Amino acid sequence: MVEMERGMVFYRVRRINNRYYLIKEWYDARERKKKTVSIGPCDKIEETVRSCGGWDLNPRRPTPSGPKPDPFDLARAPPLHM
């Protein structure tokens, strides 16, 4: 469920003629009736998601810039006087 300016939006999966479809439903207050839109067949949506598997979906994340420093380089020397 997603709340938008037009009210609550529901996403459902429906079986139609032995195929499963992703359906978007909401109530239109202006027309005073329920609206329904088919997003598409679930098998095609799953196929699309699987084909994107190797790509980075967050392009803002910086890529690593080389090898990580050795842990001994990061360690500080112990204090001289206690």
Describe this structure in words.
Helix content is 17%, strand content 39%. It is α+β, with helices and mostly antiparallel strands. The protein has a domain at 1-52. It has a 4-stranded antiparallel sheet with strand order 1-2-3-4. β1 and β2 (7-16) form a beta hairpin. The chain starts with a strand and ends in an 8-residue tail after the last helix.
What's the alpha carbon Rg, rounded to whole Å?
26 Å
Q: What is the strand tally?
A: 4
**Basic shape:** elongated
User: What gap, in angstroms, lies between the N and C termini?
Assistant: 61 Å
Strand ordering within the main sheet: 1-2-3-4
Largest sheet: 4 strands, antiparallel
List the helices and strands and how they pair.
Elements: E1 2-4, E2 7-16, E3 19-28, E4 33-41, H1 42-51, H2 71-74
Antiparallel strand pairs: 1-2, 2-3, 3-4
Brief description of this entry?
The protein is 17% helix and 39% strand. With 82 residues, it is an alpha+beta fold.
